[in-house]
């Protein structure tokens, strides 16, 4: 239970210490008897909702989607609807067949094997059977799943490729953020980056995840001094057209202060795993969403560009127009 939820219980006089109503600042002593009346747990029922999905592949055991921006994966405390799980439930009832696995059902996240951040787009797999769920889960746990991302970062990266091996944990002061931590709270995290294209003031990089910590790519890149464009959580700047397109070069009907990207420029471009039932290796490529595609197109058109030829890149890029 969160600190805010506990505070609410105290404010609603649902907590007693030795039979008396305490304050939030009350100090407990050895032998004190604390009693709390807890509210009933929220319902785990997930109503189907007709939310559009970009489906890359579906069979009897799993579904792979190209997640769109500004949607969370499963219901959480502050958001009970409008999630990927709601959308998948509706799809299986109305457009295809089957359903989400029962694994994780008690936490309102049935079928969810892994997650992408709310504003991160790209390839994501969900399980339609319990067997598929457990087998996919083992692959993620054993780090045999191939994951490649594309990101546009601020600044010009000098080192063309490197492995970032820095532990990550919850930020010591800021709720819901993460940071590089060299104490007992930091967990091992490795990211390989390879520069794909260099522009004046920006760099397009391909990232290979060797681990899967929350906000891993965003934290690692920010620690390197190259936060992801648009990622104001971790030092990036919200982009307007004037930050990319020089004055007088843009279309006359576009405003310089017009938002160019309303999120972090991060996209899960490639997902590769062994099919949990058939056993063969499957690879899925998720095309860029229009907002990030436009950003890269404008950078190519309006910023001096240099293409890096780094071995080990897997994501196929559309050629410049």
Description:
With 321 residues, the chain is α+β, with helices and mostly antiparallel strands. The protein folds into 3 domains: 39 residues, no CATH class; 100 residues, Pseudouridine synthase (2-Layer Sandwich), CATH 3.30.2350; 177 residues, 2-Layer Sandwich (Pseudouridine synthase). It is 17% helix and 26% strand. The strands form 4 sheets. Strands 3, 4, 5, 6, 7, 10, 11, 14, 15 and 16 form a 10-stranded mixed sheet that branches. A hairpin with a 6-residue loop joins strand 14 and strand 15. The protein is globular.
Question: Strands, helices and their partners?
Answer:
Layout: H1 3-11, E1 15-17, E2 34-36, E3 55-58, E4 62-67, H2 84-94, E5 121-127, H3 130-141, E6 146-154, E7 161-165, E8 168-170, E9 178-180, E10 190-199, E11 202-209, H4 216-223, E12 239-240, E13 259-261, E14 266-274, E15 281-285, H5 290-302, E16 305-307
Parallel strand pairs: 5-14
Antiparallel strand pairs: 1-2, 3-4, 4-5, 6-11, 6-14, 7-10, 8-9, 10-11, 10-16, 12-13, 14-15
Task: Please indicate the percent range of residues in DSSP E strands (runs of 2 or more).
Answer: 25-35%
- How many helices? The count is 5
Total count of domains = 3
Which shape, going by the Cα principal axes? globular
Regarding CATH, which class of the largest domain?
Alpha Beta
Q: What's the CATH topology label of the largest domain? A: Pseudouridine synthase
């Amino acid at each position: 239970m969160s600190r805010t939820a506990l505070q609410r219980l105290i404010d609603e006089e649902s907590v007693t210490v030795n039979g008396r109503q305490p304050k939030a600042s009350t100090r407990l002593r050895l032998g004190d008897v604390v009693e709390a009346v807890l509210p009933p747990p929220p319902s785990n029922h997930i109503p189907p909702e007709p939310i559009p999905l970009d489906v890359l592949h579906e069979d009897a055991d799993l579904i792979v989607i190209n997640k769109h921006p500004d949607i969370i994966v499963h219901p959480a405390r502050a958001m009970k609807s409008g999630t990927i799980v709601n959308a998948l439930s509706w799809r299986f009832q109305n457009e295809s067949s089957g359903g989400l696995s029962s694994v994780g059902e008690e936490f309102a996240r049935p079928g969810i094997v892994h997650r992408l951040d709310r504003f991160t787009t790209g390839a994501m797999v969900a399980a339609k059977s319990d067997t598929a769920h457990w087998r996919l889960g083992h692959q993620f746990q054993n780090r045999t799943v191939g994951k490649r991302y594309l990101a546009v970062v601020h600044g010009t990266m000098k080192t063309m490729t490197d492995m970032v091996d820095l532990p990550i944990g919850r930020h010591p002061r800021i709720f819901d953020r993460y940071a590089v931590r060299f104490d007992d709270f930091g967990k091992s995290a490795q990211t390989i980056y390879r520069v794909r294209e260099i522009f004046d003031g920006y760099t397009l990089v391909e990232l290979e995840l060797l681990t899967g910590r929350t906000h891993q790519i965003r934290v690692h890149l920010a620690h390197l001094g190259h936060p992801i464009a648009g990622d104001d959580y971790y030092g990036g700047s919200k982009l307007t057209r004037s930050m990319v397109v020089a004055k007088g070069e843009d279309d006359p009907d576009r405003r310089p202060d017009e938002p160019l990207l309303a999120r972090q420029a991060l996209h899960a471009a490639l997902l590769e795993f062994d099919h949990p039932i058939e056993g063969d290796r499957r690879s899925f490529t998720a095309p860029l969403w229009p907002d990030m595609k436009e950003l890269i197109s404008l950078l190519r058109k309006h910023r001096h560009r240099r293409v890096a030829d780094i071995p080990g890149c897997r994501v196929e890029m559309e050629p410049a127009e």
